[in-house]
Amino acid sequence: MTLLSIRTDAGVFDAIAAGPPAGRPVLLLHGFPQTGLVWQRQVEALAAQGCRVVAPDQRGYSPGARPERPEDYRMGRLVDDVVTITEELGWAAFDLVGHDWGGAVAWWTAQAHPGRVRTLTVVSTPHPGALATTLRTDEDQRTRSRYMIDWRETPATEERMLAHDAHELRGLFAGKVPKDSADTYVRHLSEPGALTAALNWYRAGRPDGAIGAVEVPTLYVWSTQDSAFGPAAAQETGRWVDGPYRFETLQGVSHWVPEEAPETLSRLLLEHLRAHGAY
Predict the structure, then answer these.
(1) Are 45 and 53 in contact (CB under 8 A)?
(2) DSSP 37
(3) Which of 3, 88, 133, 267 has the largest count of CB atoms under 10 Å?
(4) Nearest-5° Cα angle at 211, 140 to 126
(5) Is residue 279 within 8 Å of 52, Cβ to Cβ?
């Protein structure tokens, strides 16, 4: 595994990478409050099968791509980052994987650029249209999503999350993320401006337009103990995929799937890639 600095017009993105340069290209997008390192086990597993795998620290998480204004974290900018990163890597087409906020970006990217996204895999995060539907119709999902409104406060949220050795920030992982990984994320987000940048994803406001159905081959992985996304949104997601669709439920697993169930997720990823093109 190597470290990359990917230079784009939006700034410099840090990333981890592995696998042969000519291998099948796979981009993995992390969420809050983590970095590209959340994908370490999947990067290793995919690279071992000949894929070229890159997991960047996204906008705000990379010090070299950390604008200050919340509006600079609108969804259109985040999707543009995916396009420019992959262009800089020389990838005309690629497999896209996302978790948490990275999953939301992955849904929007696949819908906007179906000619470039070869396959889509999203972990935890339902399709944005499915989430919007259940926020209107399902009280359980509305309750689960209230934290998104709470975290828009500033600077109270940053101060609260980092107080007492980041007790609240660490508590988000609920003991499901290895301690050394949690320590790494906390150190990263304790850097000046880093946590504010990460929270700006929540403060950026609604996307500029509506999202439609996704046409690319899609794997959606949801876990029954996910505190953020409930069963209604998970089940609704299939209605928003027009291409080949596979829905996998992980019993007894929390929101932190890539680190809590790494072997299972890696297996599902590899099966999905093999089902939609040899490599």
Answers:
(1) no
(2) G
(3) 133
(4) 35
(5) no
Task: Report the C-alpha gap between 262 and 265 in whole angstroms.
Answer: 5
The pTM assigned to this predicted structure is: 0.97
Domain boundaries, the chain: 2-275
The CA-to-CA distance between both ends of the chain, in Å, stands at: 20
Q: What CATH number should be reported for the domain whose range is 2-275?
A: 3.40.50.1820
Look-up: residue for tokens 């985040």? 78
In this predicted structure, the answer to whether residue 279 has a pLDDT above a threshold of 70 is no
Per-residue pLDDT of 76-118, as tens digits, reads 999 999 999 999 999 999 999 999 999 999 999 999 999 999 9
Q: Which residue has the tokens 């890696």?
A: 266
pLDDT tens-digit map of 20-36: 999 999 999 999 999 99
Q: How high is the pLDDT of residue 278?
A: 59
The pLDDT tens digits for 221-257 are: 999 999 999 999 999 999 999 999 999 999 999 999 9
Do 80 and 49 form a contact (C-beta atoms < 8 A)?
A: no
Residue holding tokens 């072997």? 263
3-state secondary structure of 45: helix
